Inverse folding.
């Protein structure tokens, strides 16, 4: 039984013989010896059960069957070439990219840059899944995950999206109610354990009266004067500039920075074009500070 790859090779040899009008010119173009080209044409004709070429010492001529097969072979080669270009990204990338990200990153970064991305790549669609919890790229069928914190050792590959300062913030109204913000109760924390400690005290579990599953939820509660929260600076920059929030203990958090990464399954050279261009776009336009 002839394999698919062998059939494509026989087809390539046949088309080249017709285009160059001879076994010897086709052999030179393909890097074969003329006898190998002759054997290939013979195998093809035997498999098809029909003669494709009329051969003489001076020239070749197509039979009616050969003419029909030649037209179909050229069309098939064009389809294969198109499929390979599209899969490799030579044409405009197409398909759906599934991004898993925190609500904070979606709210304060992604929503600002997605419209332009979709304009540049009209063939790409996006699925955006919001969660602060760590996700499994394989089992959850995610193409890219945007995550904060240091990268653990794993088979995943990460592209840096910069880093941001972690700041402690509260509303002016909450601050006015406190005698000493550092000893105040009612701090807002996460419902799950993070790599980086969010509060300075080792008794943070006692001080966190409210816990939330994502950073954007923490920000909203802080804006409601429920309590102070420790958040990434890029998520509260506008709130600080407008006066809706104020910094608490800036001297303690000035040097504390948290890196952000776009995480994916590598190696990068084998990524589909739709994922590769999204990663490139995030690396250029989706950085935090």
């Amino acid at each position: 039984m002839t394999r698919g790859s062998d059939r494509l090779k026989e087809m390539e040899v046949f088309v080249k013989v017709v285009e160059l009008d001879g076994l010897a010119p086709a052999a030179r173009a393909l890097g074969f010896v003329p006898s190998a080209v002759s054997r290939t044409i013979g195998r093809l004709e035997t498999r098809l059960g029909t003669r494709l070429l009329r051969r003489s010492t001076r020239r070749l001529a197509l039979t009616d069957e050969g003419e029909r097969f030649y037209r179909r072979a050229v069309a098939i080669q064009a389809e294969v070439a198109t499929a390979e270009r599209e899969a490799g990204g030579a044409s405009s990338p197409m398909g759906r990219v599934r991004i898993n990200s925190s609500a904070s990153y979606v709210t304060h970064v992604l929503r600002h840059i997605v419209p332009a991305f979709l304009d540049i790549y009209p063939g790409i669609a996006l699925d955006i899944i919001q969660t602060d919890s760590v996700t499994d790229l394989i089992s959850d069928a995610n193409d890219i995950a945007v995550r904060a914190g240091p990268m653990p050792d794993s088979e995943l590959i990460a592209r840096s999206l910069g880093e941001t300062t972690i700041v402690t913030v509260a509303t002016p109204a909450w601050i006015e109610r406190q005698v000493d913000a550092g000893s105040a109760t009612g701090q807002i924390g996460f419902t799950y354990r993070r790599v980086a400690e969010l509060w300075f005290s080792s008794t943070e579990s006692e001080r966190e009266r409210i816990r939330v599953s994502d950073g954007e939820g923490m920000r909203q509660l802080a804006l409601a004067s429920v309590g102070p929260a420790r958040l990434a600076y890029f998520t509260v920059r506008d709130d600080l500039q407008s006066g809706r929030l104020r910094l608490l203990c800036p001297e303690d958090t000035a040097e504390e920075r948290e890196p952000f990464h776009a995480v994916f399954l590598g190696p990068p050279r084998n990524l589909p074009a739709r994922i590769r261009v999204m990663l490139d776009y995030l690396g250029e336009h989706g950085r935090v500070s």
